[in-house]
Amino acid sequence: MEVFETIAGMRNARKRLSEPVGFVPTMGYLHEGHLALVRKARSDNNAVVVSIFVNPTQFDPSEDFQTYPRDIQRDLSLLEREGVDIAFTPSVEEMYPERFDTYIHVGGVTRRLEGASRPGHFTGVATVVAKLFGIVKPNRAYFGRKDAQQLVVIGKMVADLNMDVEIVSVPTVREPDGLAMSSRNVYLNSREREAARVLWKALQGAKRLWAQGERRTARLREEMIQCIEEEPLATIDYVSVADPITLDELHQCRGPALASLAVRIGKTRLIDNLLLE
Ligand code: PAF
Asked: Whose C-alpha lies nearest to ligand 1, atom 9?
């Protein structure tokens, strides 16, 4: 595996790769969820590029950019083992040199859910992903379904800006008790880790009602809220049942619906979702 820290190095190496090229953008501190993306990219393509870059523009000043977990040596050895061709590990200065001043703002779908709770977050995500696409020039790019809104936002950006890349979504990887894998799970102490099971439990509650034929979203939301409120360490940020494409909140489901939630367990903000269909 080759490792490049500069855009010029990455670009040169890209010319030698045999297509199709699969790309997995990450912020590092890799877990099984990332490795599932890498494995899917490996099986679909002739070459695989993975980026590791903790992107400052998608963090609000009050968020955890400085303390976001990092372990580049461990990440690189995991990627090497997965048969990745290139790891791209730029610095903040390389990606955002002085006087950098162009941002991609995706409209309506960024105003709700994560976008409402984390203003500016998706502008940072769209901007860095567009830059990475411009540098790596992948044929396909892989994203996890745990960040369901991120997938919608990136799909919209790619369609609206006619970017020539196929977006592939990969199912969420979960711990045996259902907790979605996330680099932020490392923040949880053992009591909080136990409490964090409530996200999956709440989504399962909504799924159970859905399977019984419930289509009133107020009932589905109420079920999830009640379940979370039973956990003393949990504070709800949002609980939503929305249209999976527009992310508009639904009153009554006529087709599939995306149940999603953001919950603070102690100081750690976790998200999860489940497609009801
Ligand atoms: O999902 C992530 O880890 C990040 O949002 C991404 C897509 C790598 C952009 O920084």
From this structure: 125
Domain 2-170: assigned CATH number: 3.40.50.620
Q: With a 6 A CB cut-off, is 148 part of the ligand 1 pocket? A: no
- Give the CATH number of domain 183-272; options: 1.10.1740.10, 3.40.50.1820, 1.10.10.10, 3.30.1300.10: 3.30.1300.10
Q: Is the peptide bond between 61 and the residue preceding it cis, with omega within 30 degrees of 0?
A: no
Domains of the chain, residue spans = 2-170, 183-272
CA-nearest residue for atom 2, ligand 1, is 26
Q: What is the pLDDT of residues 137-161, one digit of tens each?
A: 999 999 999 999 999 999 999 999 9
* Any atom of ligand 1 within 6 Å of the Cβ of 50: no
Half-sphere exposure of 132 (CA within 13 A, CB side): 32
Is the pTM higher than 0.90?
A: yes
pLDDT in tens, 196-238: 999 999 999 999 999 999 999 999 999 999 999 999 999 999 9
Between β-strands 86-88 and 2-4, what pairing exists: parallel, antiparallel or unpaired?
Answer: parallel
Tell whether ligand 1 has an atom less than 6 A from the beta carbon of residue 128: yes
